[in-house]
Each structure stands twice: as C-alpha cells, then as structure tokens.
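Lab notebook, bench 4. Continuing the backlog of folding jobs that were queued last week. Each job is logged with the same field layout so the records can be merged later without manual cleanup. Today's entry covers MFS general substrate transporter, a 415-residue chain. Filled in by technician R.K.

JOB TYPE: sequence-to-structure
TARGET: MFS general substrate transporter
LENGTH: 415
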Amino acid sequence: MENDRHCGAISLALKPTPFKEGGIHGYLTVFGSFLALFATFGQMNAFGSFQLWYSEHQLSQYSPSDISWIGSLQLWVFFFSGGIIGRFFDAYGPRWLLVLGTLIYTFSLMMTSLATKYYQFILAQGVVFGIGVGLLFYPSLSAAATHFSKYRATAVGIAVAGSSVGGVVFPLLLQRLFNEVGFPWAVRISGFVCLACGVVACLTCTSRLPPKKPGPWIDVASFRDVKFMLFSIGSGTCCLGIFVPFFYIVQYSQDQGVSQRLAFDLLSVMNAGSVFGRVLPGYIADLVGRYNMLAPFAVLAGIFSLALWLNAHNVAALTLYSVFYGFFSGAFISLNTPCIAQISRMDQIGTRIGMAYSLLSFPSLVGGPIAGAILTRQHGDFSGLIIYTGVALIIGGFLILAVKLMINRNFFAKV
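JOB STATUS: finished
OUTPUT FIELD FOLLOWS
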C-alpha cells in the first residue's frame, strides 16, 4: 500500500503541467517583443528614408541598386542569422541573446552615424545592424510564441505590430532630425531610443520552455518535411518583392512630383497600414485558420501593387496604395511565424523559425537590388519594378496556398 502511494506520488510529480495560456509572463513577453521589434524591424521598415537621403547626399554618386544593397544586406544577415540564433534560443532561452543584441544593435547605429564611405555603410548598417536585429528579433518573438497556443497568432501579431509602429515613427523622426540636427545626430538619437527599447525587452522577455541540451546545428529532418520546405519556398518567393515598396515608395513619390516631406509621410502611412495588418489578421487567423489568412493576403498584396501602385501618380492614389499595401503585407510578416509553429513541434519552434528565416535570407538579399537593377535598366521608369513586385507576391501566395491544401484538402477547412 505504501509503495502504491509512493508510485502514485512519483507519477503525479512526473505528470506534465497543463499548458497555461498567456499569464503575466506571457503578456510581459509580448510587450517586450513589441518594443524589440519597434526598435529593430521598425528601423528596417524605414530604410526608404535612408535610401532617399543617401541618393541625395553621402552616396549620390551611386545607383539606386547600389544603395539598396545596404538595406538588402541587413535583411540577408538578419534572416540568415536565424538558424544559429534559433538554436541558441532553444538551448539557453532569450535573456542573454537579447542583451548581446541590444549592445550590437546600438553599436551599429552609432557607427552608421560616423560613416561617410559606401563600404562603411555596408559594414555598419548592413552587416552589424543585421546581426543586432537578429539577436533581438528571433529570441523575443520565439519567446512570445511559447506562452500561447490557442491565441498564438494574435500574440505574435501584437508583438510584430511593434515593427510597423516603428516604421511609422522612424521615417517621421528621421526626416525631421535629418534637416534639424544633421544626419549623424539624427541616427544617434534614434540609437538611444532603440537602446531604451532593448533594455526593456531584456527585462521582460522570458520563455515558457526550460533550456535544453543544444541539438545539431541543422535539423536535417526538417529538409525532408515537404510542407515546411514548400512553405519556405513560397515565403521566399514573396520575399523577393515584399520589401521593395518599403525601399522605393519614397523615391517613387518624389519621381511623381511629391514633396520630400510628403514622400517620407507616405512611408509612415504604409507602415501605419501595416500596424492593423499585423494585429487584426492575426486575431482573425486564430478563428478561421492561419494559412487561410496568409495565402490570400500575400496574393492581394501583389494584386494591389499591380492595380494601384502601377497607376498611382498623385498623393491621393499613393496614399490609398500605401494603406492597402501596408495592411496586406503586414499580415504576411505577422503570420509567417505562427504558420511555421503550426507545422512544428513545440520544442522545434525556435530552430524551425530560425531555419525558415535563414532560407528566406537569400531572396531577401537579392530582392531590392533586382528591383533597383530593373529601375536602372528602364532609365528611371518604375513600371518594371512594380510588376516584378506584384508577380513575386502572387506566385509566393499560391505556393503557400498549396501548403494549406497539403495539410487539409478541404478548401474551406480551418488550417
């Protein structure tokens, strides 16, 4: 009898604790993730501000394609670092990765403020910036995903909305500061803002999962997962075009005769639309299915580029396009992580997210320069660049739809 009670106590102790949705630690993690993405991806979404400034000042002798390599390189480094950072997240949790990321990211902005040569911008705002963003983005977002199951897309959508809010704030902040205090201090001030956000993220972001022994650097089994690989290919195709409007909307607007102030404002409008696109579709996705939202929204972002951007020649039309594109592209950014998590085990989330973003790094690297090369080849005519953007998004959206049908052949099933 005593042995039975003893065995019962042991089995009770070994019984896994039930999953607790959210809780105070979960909500704090979402808040910290929001600030981390506000500071990092928000600055990346504002690269169009730098693209225009560089083309008229420090790098005026370089082509738009050359300048866009800075933004594309930071995207590539950020995405490619995901596989390595995801492995460390699964093994050690988010805290020290976030601390290191805050230091490196702030350092990159301070070095950017001192840069005058093309190679210096490549190193500071391309390579080092991308590493800092990765160290803040992946641990904070992966940590938020571990605290939620039923409302994972909603939680991640709220966290990712921080990048859109940052994309609204930073173009307005930088445009005003560039003219009032000059480029170096404008970048330094933005760096201090990002430092404060990083410190808060370090203090609030936690993972629900205990640290585990590091696994292999590459999860080979994931490459044999047809759904995971097809999803990565579809998302990668979207990434060929998804960031192009954020890079070129300011320059395009000025080409249409819009003032510099209004051109910067349009980038903020695009990011404002993305705020709603990253929160509202995430909430709906938890109700109707994450793949059911991601695939059509990617296709619609492409359709609106072909239908609206191609014919937008005044402030009203450009504003309308910026709002719609921001909304539909925002859903693509916020729903990627929950869709990866949906086809992964809980203990694979960090590694799988990192691997997926590493694969996405290559199309993200070449997307902007390809668009710039098309623009140069057409002697400043943006039509080819816009068609390239729309077609990439539509093809990628249909590939993601194919993954949804592999999960459940019923077209109307919740997936």
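OBSERVATION: The domain at 23-407 is CATH 1.20.1250.20 (Growth Hormone; Chain: A;).
SIGNED: R.K.
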